[in-house]
Amino acid sequence: MRTLSFDIVLIFFNLFALICENVARGPSTVCNTTEAYFDHPDTNSNCRIDKDLNVSVSEIAKNHGFTLEKHTIETDDLYVLTTYRLKKTDKDYGNKTIFLQHGLMADFTSFIYNGNNSLAFYLGNLGYDVWLGNYRDTEYCSHKYLLRTDPKYWEF
Ligand SMILES: *[C@@H]1O[C@H](CO)[C@@H](O)[C@H](O)[C@H]1NC(C)=O
Ligand SMILES: *[C@@H]1O[C@H](CO)[C@@H](O)[C@H](O)[C@H]1NC(C)=O
Ligand SMILES: *[C@@H]1O[C@H](CO)[C@@H](O)[C@H](O)[C@H]1NC(C)=O
Ligand SMILES: *[C@@H]1O[C@H](CO)[C@@H](O)[C@H](O)[C@H]1NC(C)=O
């Protein structure tokens, strides 16, 4: 017959196992279902590692064979806009220029967050010289004198 203390020990053991499993799961694990995510995701055939998750934007570009070359552009009203240019690690830039500018409430990552199907990498692999702009409200931009926490920064 099971005693109450046995049940309590069992609960703690299960909790401990659950915590260990969660710690072991990397932040880059992607699964098709919630069940798979909690069922040994490291060996589960419904899970995979997405190398683009939880890494910097430079790392994402590297995963797809590119280097992000950073250019800063100062506007007349002294905002500093970061614009990235894709550089092929083996050959140099492409020979026809394409400038991609993101939409509302987004930033240049819209063009690199879809693995090999990302528009930036797709065009880069076709041999285009790809430039990626960022508007001044994104985290990739700043102002020469104003901090982003200063309400004046947002008066543009
Ligand atoms: C589930 O995920 C695995 C690994 O990412 C993939 O190979 C498989 O095709 C997926 N299956 C379905 C039904 O989406
Ligand atoms: C990756 O995830 C950890 C927590 O799991 C976090 O501390 C870290 O800042 C993340 N790194 C990036 C580059 O997002
Ligand atoms: C993505 O593209 C790179 C560069 O062309 C290639 O090396 C890699 O195998 C591709 N990955 C997938 C998952 O298609
Ligand atoms: C770049 O130039 C090469 C050689 O002139 C040409 O074959 C290729 O189509 C060009 N690529 C683009 C994207 O225009």
How would you describe this protein?
With 156 residues, this protein is α+β, with helices and mostly antiparallel strands. The protein has 2 domains: 46 residues, no CATH class; 98 residues, Alpha/Beta hydrolase fold, catalytic domain (Rossmann fold). The protein is 25% helix and 25% strand. Strands 3, 4, 5, 6 and 7 form a 5-stranded mixed β-sheet that branches. A two-stranded antiparallel sheet has the order 1-2. β3 and β4 form a beta hairpin. The protein is flat and about 75 Å long. The relative contact order is 0.12. It binds 2-acetamido-2-deoxy-beta-D-glucopyranose (NAG) (4 copies). One 2-acetamido-2-deoxy-beta-D-glucopyranose binds next to loops.
Ordered list of secondary-structure elements with their pairings:
Layout: H1 4-24, E1 29-31, H2 34-37, E2 47-49, H3 57-63, E3 66-74, E4 79-88, E5 96-101, H4 119-125, E6 128-133, E7 142-143
Parallel strand pairs: 5-6
Antiparallel strand pairs: 1-2, 3-4, 4-6, 4-7
Bound molecules: 2-acetamido-2-deoxy-beta-D-glucopyranose (4 copies).
Protein name: Lysosomal acid lipase/cholesteryl ester hydrolase-like
Domain Partial AB-hydrolase lipase: 57-115
InterPro entries: AB_hydrolase_fold, AB_hydrolase_lipase
In brief:
The chain has helices spanning 4-24, 34-37, 57-63, 119-125, and strands at 29-31, 47-49, 66-74, 79-88, 96-101, 128-133, 142-143. The protein is α+β, with helices and mostly antiparallel strands and 156 residues long. The protein folds into two domains: 4-49, no CATH class; 57-154, Alpha/Beta hydrolase fold, catalytic domain (Rossmann fold, 3-Layer(aba) Sandwich), CATH 3.40.50.1820.
